[in-house]
Amino acid sequence: QGGAAALEQQQLLHGQVSAESGLVPALVGALASPDTPPDAAQRICWCIYFVAAAAPRLKLGWDANLQAAAACALTQRMAGASATLEVKAASCHALSMAMQKDARLRGAFANAGGVPKLLKLAADRSTLVVTAATGAVNVFVHRAPAYAEWFVASGGVAALQGVLQRLMPGPSGHRLALVHVLWALGSMSVADVAYARAIYEGGVLPCLVQLLEACKGDGGVADVEAAVAVYLEGLQGRGPGAPDGIQKPESDLKRAQRIHLARSAAMSLTVAQMAQLKAHDHPELRESVAALSALRPLTGMAAAMAMKAKQEQAEVEAAAAAAAAASSTAASNSPLRVPASGGGYD
Questions:
Q1: In-domain check, residue 130
Q2: What InterPro entries has UniProt attached to this entry (predicted)?
């Protein structure tokens, strides 16, 4: 414990020295400078990544003004004409960490015009860039209805649906990008029922079934199962994408619309597709699929079979009751048998 405390004190001291020396502002300034070459810009992006990660506990001078400047610099770098794939990816990773640690940076990023640029990177052909960009998208909309609205207004729903369909079923290298997309779609779905409807009507559900089947023989499917569960929970208005991790409160009208949407989604799946979803053992996925399945009304044939089974069960129970009654009557009418010894009865 003493060693850990000493290390923590040393880190705090280093952070204070960095803040007093102006190192972090210098990094942000160098990133914003057009004279900084791409290889140096890439290293600076990763430095900002670690600054953002450590800022909550180290005194690095990472204040709102510096965050806004960093958001602008990262946005310019990711969209620069001379930006290499590595610089684009590093910019997205740095933004993801910064937005994750302090939600205020999301506003600075959006005000800098970053959302359309991020969507453009999400459509990139490079797996490296797409994975980093979709990760930043997920952080931007996660548990943030206001930013989800901003993202949707920028055409984010159609853009992510395009990414999902383009990467389907996708090689293993695209798995993380697909997971990021599903997380983001889940966050937007839980933010507002209107977004959930737009995403659902884009044909996401069949893609999910196909994706799960495609990933079964590709190094395990647990990460994809968890991401599909996040989307299905978001579709139904609950789950980890909701603010504070609880179900988002909705008006009676929106709740009714949400239930109708979830029921429509459940009915859009064929019996075979629903069976494929139910075949997965991931606990969150199993729970979300069960909730969705419960919304499916019985078809005519299924209802008739259920009624017949109910009638047969009633007949069996009636026959058992009649047999029990007859046995009881026969026992009461039988003569009293006296023990052979003659004892015990007068």
A1: no
A2: ARM-like (IPR011989), ARM-type_fold (IPR016024)
**Residue 108 domain-assigned (yes or no):** no
Residue 238: Cβ within 10 Å count: 18
What pTM does this model have? 0.75
Report the alpha-carbon distance of residue 207 to residue 215 in Å, rounded. 12
Least confident span in 41-50, 231-240, 253-262: 231-240
pLDDT of residue 12: 42
Per-residue pLDDT at 184 exceeds 60: yes
Domain that holds residue 219: 156-308
Domain tally for the chain? 1
What is the rounded CA–CA span in Å between residue 62 and residue 43? 18
Q: Percent helix, strand, coil in the chain (nearest 5)?
A: 75, 0, 25
What is the secondary structure of 151-195 as a DSSP string?
HHHTTHHHHHHHHHHHHSS--GGGHHHHHHHHHHHHHHHHH-HHH
Which pLDDT belongs to residue 183?
Answer: 93
Nearest to 239 by CA among 289, 273, 200: 289
* 317: helix, strand or coil: helix
Look at residues 100, 79, 82 and name the one whose alpha carbon lies nearest to residue 37. Answer: 82
Whether 299 is in a domain gets the answer: yes
Residue keyed to tokens 């997965």? 280
